[in-house]
Specification:
The protein is 36% helix and 16% strand. By secondary structure, it is α/β, with parallel strands linked by helices. The structure holds ligand MGD (2 copies) and molybdenum atom.
Length: 764
């Protein structure tokens, strides 16, 4: 590359992790003004008696109490336990219109919310309100609706099992299944795709399985940034000589080489460990082709082996006993030519074959994947092809093998388990009836896109958000934000101020809650909550910090009070009793979901317990009672991508953000410092478009519909090591180029990682 790079773009040659990570934590602690207390807090993260790190859903090593250093966990924790406050002065001094001009970073960086707020349209200010008044207002607005289905109840995946369970109880007693959820924008392709394949919408591996894996495949996730504790696992596997094969359009530094802050030798000698044994830079959206290519190669090797008198490379006993329809998948991949596979994946046939060889030569294989797989118009198909590939060699339901969707929010999986779903099944309805004596509606409710569409259409009038930042996380802010401003009621239960709160409705309330790190005291004393990680382990989390303000309430308490005000004594639910002692909530969870049997005892055992994942034991909860090989037709995800001038944009997280929370403007491992307004482009594409490194560009989404502009202007083109035809830039800024119609038809997941766009010199 050239010597003269655009401002803030540098070559970053260090390995991921190491001293760079330690330095970054020191800086964060200082910025949040919590050096001493903050350090102490970090030492309690993920400890048996401590709190669950709100950073990600990667599991904790069992039975250990050693401190696991994690740069981005540390950022998440200090961001929450900050000494800064968004107190009364902030809202006295700034109207909502003024706050709107602040950046997302500034809004949250103002600090923790300290009191309930009610929007006054006359003064354009959020003003303090008493809790009881707030609950009354919400009840009046909700009870005014002529149909409970005109209200939307969003959940972000940081909510504990206890909060989420009470929330779904309240909402179902109120009478709707409108449960838009951050999961709808995240791993929904997993939750929809895997039950059809293997009978459960969760991963089948445990953390211990990684110790027995003979090969690990990574598709579309960036653990160095988003699941740093996973790097310990990959680092150990690499040191054992386990091949780690990566499919990712970008060369993510941590997947190339990593210096473990846990490893004194690497820290002192400034050395590092290579992670990926092979790194396949496929095109964005090329995964379906790559996966079908690998399966094609497996079938071809199998045929060759059998022709030579061998037993073949498929696990025939597994396929015969446990699965259906392998022939349909074989027919599909045989009908797909290598030319098509190479063209769409952007990988050479030999590269795909070599990956298939690694797969075949390993006895036990784990495939991990993240948003690079799920956030595509064919996300569900992608997930199912991963399951197919694993099943060809019996790599599901035995030690050291399986499928590992790497979840996002720390309790996004648990929220689903305890009932946050817009499509309740019979077991859930039966369970609710058993526990509470009423049978909730079984009617399908809204997912995230459907809820936003209903709000835009003016059909839904009320939105309650248990955490998150729905308006910013969702595609197409132009229409989404306009819709949200038309609501009659908007309620946000939150720790910090964000842009969604500023999209005020006729009645708008912001209700400040305790975070994971805060001590939660109820009538019976200090409380613990529970969470479920990516590997179905349920364990307790106890905060210990003095809350930022005495006025804060816990999420369960806020929900119970809204429920009490809204429902009165409907169905005789003892809301006060439930929040007085969270053991009582857990007793109810156990009645609704028998898998949680003996919940209060088992969660008090160190390390918690694992929920039953039937597929891990080769029990298939599918209609046929078998695991299903499933065909995903074709290779292309979006017909608009066929436009020869279009690039396929993927939207990614920087190293300095947590979803819509922007901690800072650096993306160290990718060599971006002090800015986020960049688009990574391949040199050939720059040339073809008559552009060069550092040029100002506009990006326009191809949406196939007339409404909206779908443009961002004045971004900077950065020449980058990314396949031709692919482009990348940061979420959430680039949601502006997406339409609400960009989503996976099977799961409703927005295709945030496969957006057809046109790039041109800026005229803005
Ligand atoms: N520090 C931090 N931790 C987090 C989060 C955070 O924002 N910050 N977010 C949390 C949440 S909610 C989630 S869901 C997870 C997200 O964790 P990830 O799944 O790692 O999420 P992303 O950063 O969106 O990027 C995914 C990776 O996919 C690659 N990719 C992009 N397009 C494609 C494609 O078409 N194919 C393939 N194979 N790869 C592709 C990108 O280059 C990137 O390396 O992390 C969780 N943890
Ligand atoms: N273009 C594009 N868009 C995406 C994605 C992408 O990769 N690309 N990723 C998608 C994904 S995977 C996800 S999960 C969504 C994320 O969508 P959300 O989960 O809705 O968003 P977050 O940014 O995680 O929410 C941050 C807010 O949560 C609140 N908060 C933090 N801690 C707590 C707490 O303990 N309790 C409560 N009540 N509130 C709290 C704070 O007010 C903070 O401002 O975004 C999606 N959007
Ligand atoms: Mo997510």
């Amino acid at each position: 590359m050239k010597d003269q790079r655009p401002e803030g773009i540098e070559q970053y040659d260090q390995p991921a992790g190491g001293w760079g990570a330690l330095k970054a934590v020191a800086k964060t602690l200082a910025h949040q003004q919590v050096v001493a207390q903050g350090t102490l807090t970090l030492l309690k993260a993920n400890q048996p008696e401590g709190f669950d790190c709100p950073g990600c859903a990667w599991p904790d090593p069992k039975h250990t109490s050693s401190f696991e250093f994690c740069e981005n966990g540390a950022k998440a924790i200090t961001w929450e336990s900050t000494a800064k406050r968004s107190g009364p002065e902030l809202f006295e001094n700034n109207t909502v219109s003024e706050l709107w001009k602040w950046s997302d970073h500034q809004l949250e960086d103002a600090g923790r919310l300290t009191m309930p707020l009610h929007y006054n349209g006359q003064t354009d200010r959020y003003e303090p309100i008493e809790w009881d008044e707030a609950f009354k207002l919400i009840a009046i607005e909700l009870n005014k609706l002529d149909d409970p289905n005109k209200a939307e109840f969003y959940t972000s995946g940081r909510a504990s099992n206890e909060a989420a369970f009470l929330y779904q109880l309240f909402v179902r007693a109120f009478g709707t299944n409108n449960f838009p959820d951050c999961s709808n924008m995240c791993h929904e392709a997993t939750s929809v795709g895997l039950p059809m394949s293997i009978g459960v919408g969760k991963g089948t591996v445990t953390l211990e399985d990684f110790d027995y894996a003979d090969a690990i495949f990574s598709f579309g996730h960036n653990p160095g940034t988003n699941h740093p504790r996973m790097m310990t696992t990959l680092h150990n596997a690499s040191r054992r000589g386990v091949p780690i094969v990566v499919f990712n359009p970008l060369k993510e530094r941590a997947l190339e080489r990593f210096a473990a802050p846990q490893d004194p030798v690497e820290m002192v000698t400034l050395s590092s460990t290579p992670i990926a044994s092979a790194y396949h830079q496929l095109r964005t959206g090329g995964d379906l082709a790559a996966l079908k290519g690998m399966m094609k190669a497996v079938f071809e090797r199998d045929a060759t082996d059998i022709a030579a008198g061998g037993p073949g490379v498929l696990d025939r006993p597994f396929i015969d006993e446990h699965t259906l329809s392998v022939e349909a998948v074989r027919a599909d991949v045989e009908a797909t030519s290598w030319d098509q596979i190479v063209a769409v994946s952007g990988l050479a046939r030999s590269a795909i074959e070599s990956a298939a060889d690694v797969y075949i030569n390993a006895k036990n294989v784990i495939i991990c994947y993240g948003m690079g797989i799920t956030q595509h118009a064919n996300g569900t198909g992608n997930v199912q092809q991963i399951a197919n590939l694993l099943m060809l060699r019996g790599n599901i339901g035995r030690q050291g093998a399986g499928i590992a969707p790497i979840r996002g929010h720390s309790n996004v999986q648990g929220d689903r388990t305890v009932g946050i779903t817009e499509i309740p099944n019979k077991a859930l309805l039966d369970g609710m009836e058993r526990a509470f004596g009423f049978r909730p509606s079984g009617e399908k409710g809204h997912n995230a896109i459907e809820s936003v569409e209903a709000i835009i259409a003016g059909e839904s009038k009320a939105l309650i958000c248990l955490g998150g930042n729905l308006a910013v996380a969702m595609s197409d802010p132009e229409v989404t934000w306009k819709g949200m401003r038309k609501l009659d009621l908007a309620v946000h239960i939150a720790t910090k101020l964000n842009r969604s709160h500023l999209l005020t409705a006729k009645t708008s309330l912001v209700l400040p809650c305790l975070g994971r790190t805060d001590l939660d005291t109820q009538a019976s004393g200090p409380q613990a909550v529970t969470v479920e990680d990516s590997m179905s382990m349920v364990h307790a989390s106890r905060g210990f910090l003095t809350p930022p303000s005495a006025a804060l309430k816990s999420e369960p308490a806020i929900i119970a009070n809204i429920a009490k005000a809204t429902l009165g004594d409907r169905y005789g639910i003892d809301w006060d009793g439930l929040i007085a002692d969270y053991d009582r909530i857990r007793e109810k969870i156990e009645v609704v979901f028998p898998d949680f049997h003996d919940f209060n005892r088992r969660v008090r055992v160190r390390g918690g317990f694992r929920l039953d994942v039937a597929a891990s034991f080769r029990r298939w909860n599918t209609e046929s009672g078998k695991a299903n090989f499933l065909v995903a037709a074709g290779l292309d995800e979006d017909p608009l991508i066929k436009n020869p001038d279009a690039l396929v944009l993927t939207t990614i997280r920087s190293h300095d953000q947590y979803n819509t929370t922007v901690y800072g403007l650096d993306d160290r491992y990718r060599g971006v410092f002090g800015r986020r307004d960049v688009i990574f482009l391949n040199k050939d594409d720059l040339n073809r478009l008559g552009l060069k490194d550092g040029d100002r560009i506009d990006v326009r989404g191809l949406v196939g519909a007339k409404e909206g502009t779908h443009v961002v202007q004045g971004f900077t083109a950065v020449e980058y090591n990314i396949p031709k035809g692919s482009a990348a830039g940061y979420y959430p800024e680039l949601n502006a180029v997406m339409s609400l119609r960009h989503f996976d038809r099977l799961s409703g997941t927005p295709s945030y990682k496969g957006v057809p766009v046109m790039v041109a010199a800026s005229n803005g």
